[in-house]
UniProtKB/TrEMBL annotation:
Residues 87-185 form the HTH araC/xylS-type domain. Transmembrane segments: none annotated. GO terms for molecular function: alkylated DNA binding; DNA-3-methyladenine glycosylase activity; DNA-7-methylguanine glycosylase activity; DNA-binding transcription factor activity; methyltransferase activity; sequence-specific DNA binding; zinc ion binding. Its cofactor is Zn(2+). It comes from Amycolatopsis vastitatis. This is DNA-3-methyladenine glycosylase II. It comes from the Bacteria. Its EC number is 3.2.2.21. Pfam families: Ada_Zn_binding (PF02805), AlkA_N (PF06029), HTH_18 (PF12833). The keyword Ribosomal protein does not apply.
Length: 487
């Protein structure tokens, strides 16, 4: 989009927040870059230049605007809509892979050479993986500076910088302020406890929280997830330790309170929470297309901005999907809770009732199938999945959707419902669709969509947003997953 000069100018002049994260406006006279919705008077078009990423603008010598904070805008929805190399790379960079494994580790996960990854990412983003990771470290540093009382030396290490000098130079270059000046300008009181952070996770309006939080709470596993004081809380397994997050819907943002065992996990934790709540979606584009179907249009009008509830851990969701095959939601939660108690890693949660991390595939590898209160065929399915996960089946942010679907479909007991459920919520494919789902069948009958073949044929017009259409169809039934829990 950044190459369409006239369209970008119109978006900036209209201060259109829908384009925040799609591109960045650099002002040639001030050497500042902004988000399209920046509240200041727009510059003259001849003084505008546009970049596809904050990293590209920084690399070109522009610093972040102090008013609109473009580095904190919602991410581009492109990276969650696509499954090509660049999109997969961007999801992995957001998850902190470059900081923990370097560009070589990123390339290895993607199955390409370092040169190929760097060339394709630069061609589309105007910056390479290292520059993109550097921009993310700068944003992490700013968050820690403004929300904690950590000494700057500790903070630099937590943000991923190799030295205090690099930390200071980067912060000055990106924000035109020293770390100390940034902290002095910050509003609010820093978190008192080390590792306790209060953040705002922005999103593009509108957002319908009903199915989003209703689904997460209705299917929540005791000990791992809970609804407390108007917030969804859960434990997180992160690269350097564990975490606990509380997420509460607010106007224009999600209030996020994170308690981390290791502050180096802040980028990964933030990225996973955004993916969980589908916060980088473009709801206007989704709703506009779905509303062209006269049967879906009233549903979209009644609840604009529905998101797809996803997951913070693809392997965890896949295990839970198998446990939920052909049983009720309550039964699936019971099965999962037993696994958590028997094989999960205990955690301390002084603020609530969270007790464990969900068991990792390696922990489940020692599972005795005779202890599972389920049919023998489903035991075999679960053990086959655990074996595939321990052997390297990737259900993470950078997975190849087509290859992963094929790998899942080859496992015993994996039919279309299980594969598409994992594609929708673990892989994040916005076009995943479950025509065999009981809720979809009920919706089809209620709306007069016809049988399964007719629903599949009609859904072609909903592509590539069939996962979002699924949320609207499920909302035609009276189920807790469609409602916001009581505070």
């Amino acid at each position: 989009m950044h190459e369409d000069f006239e369209r970008c100018v119109r978006a900036v002049q209209a201060k259109d927040a829908r384009f925040d994260g799609w591109f960045y406006t650099a002002v040639l006279t001030t050497k500042i870059y902004c988000r399209p919705s920046c509240p200041v008077v727009p510059p003259k078009p001849r003084n505008m230049s546009f970049y596809p990423s904050a990293a590209a603008a920084q690399q070109a010598g522009f610093r972040a605007c102090k008013r609109c904070r473009p580095d904190a805008s919602p991410g581009s929805p492109l990276w969650n809509e696509r499954a090509d190399l660049v999109a997969r790379a961007m999801r992995l960079i957001a998850d902190g892979v470059v900081d923990t494994e370097g560009v070589r580790g990123l390339a290895a996960r993607l199955g390409y050479s370092v040169r190929q990854v760097e060339r394709q990412v630069f061609a589309e983003l105007g910056a390479g993986p290292l520059s993109l990771a550097r921009a993310q470290r700068a944003q992490t540093a700013r968050t820690l500076i403004e929300t904690t009382a950590l000494p700057m030396t500790e903070l630099a290490l937590a943000a991923g910088f190799g030295s205090i000098r690099t930390f200071n130079d980067t912060v000055r270059e990106v924000f035109a302020l020293s770390p100390t000046e940034l902290r002095q300008r910050a509003k609010g009181t820093p978190s008192a406890a080390a590792g306790a952070l209060v953040l705002r996770l922005p999103y593009r309006k509108p957002l319908c929280p009903d199915n989003l939080f209703g689904h997460l709470v209705a299917t929540g596993v005791p000990g791992v997830e809970e609804w407390r004081d108007g917030a969804y809380r859960r434990t997180l397994r992160l690269p350097h330790g564990h975490g606990v997050v509380a997420l509460r819907p607010e106007d224009g943002h999600i209030a996020c309170r994170l308690t981390l065992a290791d502050l180096r996990d802040l980028p990964a934790a933030t990225s996973r929470c955004r993916r969980l709540l589908d916060l980088d979606a473009d709801p206007v584009a989704v709703d506009d297309q779905l509303a062209t179907d006269p049967l879906l249009a009233p549903l979209v009008a009644a609840a604009p901005g529905r998101r797809v509830p996803r997951t913070v851990d693809g392997a965890e969701f896949a295990v839970r999907a198998v446990l939920g095959q052909q049983v009720s939601t309550a039964a699936a939660r019971t099965h999962a809770a037993r696994l958590v108690v028997a094989h999960g890693e205990p955690v301390d949660d002084p603020e609530g009732g969270l007790t464990h991390l969900f068991p990792s595939p390696s922990a489940l590898a020692s599972l005795d199938p005779e202890t599972l209160a389920m049919p023998r065929s489903r035991r075999r399915t679960l053990l086959a999945l655990v074996s595939a996960l321990t052997d390297g089946l990737d259900l993470g942010a950078g997975s190849d959707w087509t290859a992963t679907r094929a790998a899942l479909g080859a496992l015993p007991g994996f039919g279309p419902w299980t594969v598409e459920s994992i594609a929708m919520r673990a892989l994040g494919d916005p076009d995943a669709f479950l025509p065999t789902d009981l809720g979809i069948k009920y919706a089809a009958e209620t709306l007069g969509l016809g049988g399964q073949a007719a629903v599949v044929a009609r859904s072609a017009a909903w592509r590539p947003w069939r996962a979002y259409a699924t949320q609207h169809l499920w909302a035609t039934g009276d189920h807790a997953i469609n409602r916001m829990p009581a505070a």
